[in-house]
Specification:
6 helices; single chain; 9 strands; three-stranded antiparallel beta sheet; 32% helix; alpha+beta
Length: 215
């Protein structure tokens, strides 16, 4: 697990728009709370010196400076009622762990944010690798009002690929239901399950399990 000490965090230059309050209190706290969460709105309980527009600016700055990755909702040709708000992740999992004050991997494994930390790391790894090899792509996530969800949808010249992310080493049939339905309804080229299995597995003709270590 990556860790970040207080002494290793480089101060953000004032010219990019962060105030001291934003850097030391609002941004770290809100981004930590919003990691792997759907951002329906800026939190209503804000400090008296932070307005709603300012709070939105802080999130935009965090995304623009590669601290935060905002993932839009998938809304293309959907036949079910879907969530349309974006979700997001702190792009550096070590920074997330530092903000959560996790001293080691044992503490992470029992923390409520364990699944969100894993999901954010896998999403970031997939998108970084696509960018590194120059593959143009768009990303989104899919969630219906009934709770069915696909963690990541990646689209490009290669087609549409739906990705479900699990920290476990085994995946049951119920875990594949949302992914299978999305692949069928949205005519995705492939459904991928990224997990901690020891080897790749084929669940269906168009559903494949892939260990994270194979990425």
């Amino acid at each position: 697990m990556g860790t970040v000490s207080n002494s290793s965090i480089t101060p953000v230059p004032s010219e990019i728009g962060f105030t001291g309050f934003a850097l030391t209190e609002f941004v770290p706290g809100r981004l930590r709370e919003r990691h792997d969460s759907i951002s329906r709105s800026v939190p209503s309980r804000l400090p008296t010196n932070v307005s709603q527009p300012t709070a939105r600016d802080y999130f935009d700055i965090a995304h623009g400076t590669f601290i935060w990755r905002a993932i839009p909702a998938y809304t293309r040709d959907v036949v079910k009622r879907t969530v349309k708000h974006p979700k997001g992740y702190l792009r550096d999992s070590g920074l997330l762990h530092a903000l959560l004050r996790l001293p080691d991997s044992d503490a992470l494994l029992v923390h409520p944010q364990m699944g969100g930390s894993w999901e954010g790391m896998v999403v970031e790894e997939i998108l970084r690798q696509l960018s590194a090899v120059g593959v143009a792509h768009q990303c989104s996530y899919y969630r219906t009002s009934a709770g069915a969800e696909v963690d990541l949808v990646v689209e490009g010249g290669f087609g549409r690929v739906a990705v479900e992310i699990k920290h476990t080493s085994t995946v049951g049939g119920r875990d594949l239901r949302s992914l299978r339905d999305f692949v069928r309804d949205q005519k995705a080229r492939l459904g991928l399950v990224i997990n901690n299995d020891v080897a790749p597995r084929q669940y269906d003709d168009d559903l494949i399990g892939l260990p994270f270590t194979w990425l």
